[in-house]
Amino acid sequence: MKYSFLRVCLLLGFGVCHAQQVPVAIQVDASTPVGAMKPFWAYFGYDEPNYTTRPDGQKLLTELQQLSPVPVYVRAHNLLTSKGTSPGPDLKWGFTDAYSEDAKGNPVYNWTVVDSILDTYIQRGMKPLMEIGFMPEALSSKPDPYAHSWSQGGNLWTGWTYPPKDYSKWRELVYQWAKHSVERYGKAEVSTWLWEVWNEPDIAYWSGTFEEYCKLYDYAADGLKRACPECIIGGPHTTSPRSEKAYNYLTRFIEHCLRGKNYATGKTGTPLQYIGFHAKGSPELVDGHIRMNMGAQLKDIQRAFEAVNSFSELKNIPIIIGECDPEGCAACSETREPKYGYRNGTMYSSYTAASFARIYELMDQYQVNLQGAVSWSFEFEDQPWFAGFRDLATHGVNKPVLNVFRMFGMMSGQRVAVRSTSGLNASDIIAKGVRAEADVQAMASKNGRSVWVMLWHYHDDNLPGTASPVALTVKGLEAGPVQVHHYRVDGQFSNSFEKWKQMGSPQQVGTEQYQELERAGQLQLLTSPAWKVATDGTMTLPVELPRQAVSLIKLSW
């Protein structure tokens, strides 16, 4: 029997089908595992360490740990930076004043601020990805000028970027820091942390040469291992390896650690216990709208995986994508850079779902041991509501993107096979982006008697578009009744930004408004939980997926 297009839509359960829009068929086979649902996404970072202990910072950290089934790792810049002449923390700027010198040039260590930051993590069951940097004013080989005023248009690359005037003092600083950490938190705890030296030494974050960075790393590793032989150190946390310069810097550093002369010990080789690099997309303004470039970010990851695999000695070495984001400037607001105007709404959340799924794909393809992918996004103090920074919350209210991490936090067990009549793969996106047809795709996992299916409707162009009907079929379930929970991030659900705009975009938010925004910032169900029947272990569900929306469907029996 032949059915009309409308009849097919009605049989699948769609009340209305858009003209000539055939439902995307997505098939999930819960009986076919493809790999572990590793929570590599449970890593977050930011420039401004002093925001850690502010009320909104503590609130957000609590929420991040609560959404994750594993300890969340946190990476922060400026853990050794001095205050200098700065009035206080600022965009891309923070300090701890951990190191100074007395009148005779003797080191003076003060761990008060560092401890307050680490205490905030440890009390929540989180783990620091300890960034050894930046250069304290008293140790900088070029300390004047020291503090930067980037947010007011000043030069960013000041005295904190320079090599130490004395590498032995630098080594001793790291030794004393690690020794103090072991005394305060215990070796069993500290040996679970990750340590690194500096950030993006291949660009202006480091005003020294490549050889001076290797020396900086060697001396730091020597000091760390003297205090804590069990501590884990790696790097070099270089920038996007799709650039030949960054790729070569990464591979030369690996060569140095494996086979070069250690500047600190004179021996061959330096401890390298994980590989760190950064991966960034590249949005632009095209004909008055924002166009994302997920392909650039995935290309970075692909190139770095190729680099690691080119060294036989690095088989199964842990890999940390130290910054893994749609672009490179968290502290640039939408006002400063209009191309960053995607961050408040659902484009950021759909991009995150779609890109992380492709990172799993690349991890499988290159058979690497990916441990973490740091989302360089936190919160900013003393800024307007929804100012368009790359952050997870504004004034303590969660933005839509945070709810995608809540979705990931609910998924566990083994990833299972998924097929879509519309979705792209990683190589497609690297080659052509998501510029023609939208990416309507899914990833799924199974653990025990539950299956989770995350679906997204993503497009690189931040333009209005029609919703996509999806016919989701899941097989490999137990025959009989199955409970269905359907969570959604879109223009209506789990979206504090849209709620704020409905309020008139106020910059002065009353108590009741704030509570309403808080509720809107939480992950919400699209519909009430329902029981449905899996016939022969198979169930078909109709889903209407708006453009840039993300759904998580949980099936339990």
UniProtKB/TrEMBL annotation:
- Which family is it part of? Belongs to the glycosyl hydrolase 39 family.
**A single GO molecular function, which one?**
xylan 1,4-beta-xylosidase activity
Q: Identify the stretch annotated as signal peptide in this record.
A: 1-19
Question: Sorted alphabetically, which keywords does the UniProt record give?
Answer: Glycosidase, Hydrolase, Signal
Residues annotated as domain Glycosyl hydrolases family 39 N-terminal catalytic: 25-524
Q: Which GO terms describe its biological process?
A: carbohydrate metabolic process
Query: Coiled-coil region(s) at which residues?
Result: none
The yes or no answer to whether the keyword Flavoprotein is present is: no
Protein name stated in the entry: Xylan 1,4-beta-xylosidase
Its Enzyme Commission number(s) read 3.2.1.37
One matching Pfam family? Glyco_hydro_39
Q: Which organism is it from?
A: Rhabdobacter roseus
Give the residues annotated as active site: E200 (proton donor)
